[in-house]
Amino acid sequence: MQITDVRVRRIEKEGKMKAIVSITLDNEFVIHDIKVIEGEKGLFIAMPSRKAADGEYRDIAHPINSDTRDMIQKVILDKYETTALEMPEVEAFA
């Protein structure tokens, strides 16, 4: 399985969520709404989820093993960092 496209939509408001990402697998299958989140130990991804009847959130789509999760997270965070470098600096106004 190859990630053939990564699209990052940065979130500019304050908070822990930094971006919403869509990935394409093998030019055939898309997963939307993967979140890039700033945690205590740095950035990580959260797979798309839905609130269940019991109030808990459950992933809608997710990797089966940790190696696949690590690979997806690395590709997404690399692209996120690249888009951060491409963005123009925002000047603060007094």
Automatic annotation (TrEMBL):
Signal peptide: none annotated. Pfam families: SpoVG. GO terms for biological process: division septum assembly; sporulation resulting in formation of a cellular spore. InterPro entries: SpoVG, SpoVG_sf. Keywords: Cell cycle, Cell division, Septation. It comes from the Bacteria. The keyword Cell cycle applies. Could be involved in septation. HAMAP family: SpoVG. Belongs to the SpoVG family. This is Putative septation protein SpoVG. It comes from Lacrimispora saccharolytica (strain ATCC 35040 / DSM 2544 / NRCC 2533 / WM1).
